[in-house]
Amino acid sequence: MEFKLDTRLWSTKARNLNPYVPGEQPKHDNLCKLNTNENPFPPSPKVAEAIAEVLSNQADQLRLYPAPESDDLKQALAEAYKLEVNQVFVGNGSDEVLALVFASFFLKERPLLSPDISYSFYPVYADTFGIELVKIPLTEDFSIETNDYRQPCSGIIIANPNAPTGILLSLEAIDKLATEHPNAVVVIDEAYIDFADQPEASAISLIDKHDNLLVTQTFSKSRSLAGLRVGMAFGNPSLIEALTRMKNSFNSYPLDRLAQAGGLASVKDEAYFEETCRKVIELRQQLTSDLSDLGFSVLPSQANFVFARPEQGNAGEIAQTLREQGVIVRYFNQPRVSEYLRITVGTAEQNQRLIEALKQRVSA
Amino acid sequence: MEFKLDTRLWSTKARNLNPYVPGEQPKHDNLCKLNTNENPFPPSPKVAEAIAEVLSNQADQLRLYPAPESDDLKQALAEAYKLEVNQVFVGNGSDEVLALVFASFFLKERPLLSPDISYSFYPVYADTFGIELVKIPLTEDFSIETNDYRQPCSGIIIANPNAPTGILLSLEAIDKLATEHPNAVVVIDEAYIDFADQPEASAISLIDKHDNLLVTQTFSKSRSLAGLRVGMAFGNPSLIEALTRMKNSFNSYPLDRLAQAGGLASVKDEAYFEETCRKVIELRQQLTSDLSDLGFSVLPSQANFVFARPEQGNAGEIAQTLREQGVIVRYFNQPRVSEYLRITVGTAEQNQRLIEALKQRVSA
Q1: Which residue ranges does the record assign to the Aminotransferase class I/classII large domain (chains A, B) (predicted)?
Q2: Domain segments of chain A: what residues?
Q3: Is the confidence at residue A56, as pLDDT, over 90?
Q4: Which of B199, B209, B247, B316 is deepest in the core (most CB within 10 A)?
């Protein structure tokens, strides 16, 4: 049914939204889907087992509301990351967690600071909540210069590794940012941190030192559970309490019983998690090397994707050609990055299919 | 770990929240849990089958993001309710849907109107979004007088059947409200509508007539899926579009893959759904009769709970005595309703256990 859009009854806020546009989720099979940074490996088999157990032994449970604060899942995360349970928050994917973060900490008179090239949902949240976002340009080589953040602000949000560049900021730099902005909340969005070469890259180790530091993570990437919607935040109990109150003013039960059970099983299977991350890191190294051999300039990625600029040819056209061959990558037609393709690290077979498609193009 | 709450880094919005307090979810077994209006019967067996199928045949799917707009589930709902798919919205429980409704339609200079006794999350949302909520008193017998709503407003929100009274508003009255307020969005929150005696009680039949009428429903009550978090809204495509944009400015993927598959299976099993509703209605009639025999005044409920006032004794003390016997009901220590208990309709055995506990108390 076609309809004529009528915004007469909408709030001004609704009229002024600039919604996030997720990477497409095509329904066709046999596509080589390297566009939304999903993990090429399935989740731990323990996840399906735990969910099946809820369904079989306790099917009756689905009729009951879930634990509103996801207590068992938070407890497991606290143990895994050697934290107290009141330093842990969970939500319906890290996107929901980030929305609550914006409302809880950045809705102030001073602006929020974020790199000019970063996760494209940040400006959307800023618009949604009426927050002034000041974009701090990355340096020429797409890295973050912490001195550029020396200005009054309500907070700073940085994706680390950054998206779509994949470049990692050091713990020393994060420590410096948190120290230099004691009255601002510094949020490190670590969606991709588990793919870093060094295992100690996470800023979680700094939250006991800085009461203004909040770290967000997700089950969607390194835990292969984008389909289950679980995200989390780690920080000082007073920051966690703000998020909890904000959650309970929007939606009390954001995680269903199956997501809580599946998430818990994933956290407990540490060996599978570490093995998967190691394999993705190896595949990234191989993909980087293969793309370089084809003349691409590849930024030094610590994530499960690479950001690569072709030696010649238009990146948008290359993305289109790849699509015609059934290989989907992400292209951002935006200043500074329009010469690049963001390519998710796939399985060895998927990466090979991409490389073959690119070779065909070169030889054509 | 005890901690001293420090709100220094919170936004003013975070400091001023009055979060919703859900009914408790005790973890002990053998409790007779009649406090949160869950369905006493399990969901359709097709739900567990559909989820098990995602896990077994397609376990790999959990690594992929879900369909952001829950297309298949919306299509099934459209067919079940004889609507176009662009008249349907789904969210992470009707609580999330309602939060988006408040931001999309009520965030205006004129106030929102709602009955003084209704779902206790409404004032929480109003606080969250900074919306002025004017409470219109129910009449002496707890019914809604539509003429009392004749005042300038951004919108009207009414739970129908109302909570915690269980009293149903007629379609004629809803038709009148929508007609008399062409520039306000009239939201009918039908969480409990499927338990009405007449099968045609839903205002969905009026949405083609009124472009300002929005109906919300949930899978948590009549579909026995409180544990899965699925809610929906039905209305004119322009209203649905506002909700979609607002969703995509907060959280693009609120329904995980399992919730989408389970919800779809539930919608398709219409026979099970109707049978369950019929059984709950019969049990409500029996419970009402048994409580009346014990001297309770029971409001005429069309929901899966009853609101009952004891002939003598303090309602709060009775709730406490019941709790000591393992029977949990909900008590609201608030003006006008503090003499009542809200009792969820349980299985025949649960209802009997409640009645026996109340009899013991009388004879003690």
Answers
A1: 31-358
A2: 28-43+271-363, 45-268
A3: no
A4: B247
How far apart, in whole angstroms, are the C-alpha atoms of residue B117 and residue B336? 8
**Does the beta-carbon distance from A255 to B229 stay under 8 Å?**
yes
Domains B24-43+271-363 and B45-268 share a fold: no
From A59's Cα to the closest Cα of chain B, the distance in A is 7
CA of A313 vs chain B CAs: smallest distance (Å): 31
Instruction: For A335-362, write each residue's pLDDT tens digit.
Output: 899 999 999 999 999 999 999 999 987 6
pLDDT confidence band for A214 (50 / 70 / 90) = very high
A131 in Cβ contact with A125 (< 8 Å): yes
Among B62, B122, B208, B328, most A C-beta atoms within 10 A, so best to mutate, is: B62
Structure token digits, residue A47: 């996840």
Do B225 and A62 count as a contact with CB atoms less than 8 A apart?
A: yes
Does the model's ipTM exceed the 0.90 cut? yes
Burial zone of B245 (CB within 10 Å; 0-12 exposed, 13-18 middle, 19+ buried): buried
Is there a contact between B42 and A25 if contact means CB atoms under 8 Å apart? no
* CATH number corresponding to A28-43+271-363: 3.90.1150.10
Angle at A253 between CA A250 and CA A256, to 5 degrees: 140
Alpha carbon of B197: minimum distance to chain A alpha carbons (Å): 22
Q: How far apart are CA A264 and CA A278, in angstroms?
A: 21
Residue pair A203/A171 in contact (Cβ under 8 Å)? The answer is: yes
Give the residue among B350, B342, B266 at the shortest CA–CA distance from B304: B342
* Contact yes or no for B55 and A52 at CB 8 A: yes
pLDDT of residue A23: 77
Per-residue model confidence as pLDDT tens digits over B96-143 = 999 999 999 999 899 999 999 999 999 999 999 999 999 999 999 999
Peptide bond into B22 cis (omega under 30): no
Ranges of beta strands (E only) in A63-184 are: 88-91, 112-115, 133-136, 155-159
- Return the CATH fold of B24-43+271-363: Aspartate Aminotransferase, domain 1 (3.90.1150)
Position B2 scores a pLDDT of 76
Q: How far from B104 is each of A140, A323, B101, CA to CA, in Å? A: 41, 36, 5
Mean pLDDT, rounded, of chain B: 95
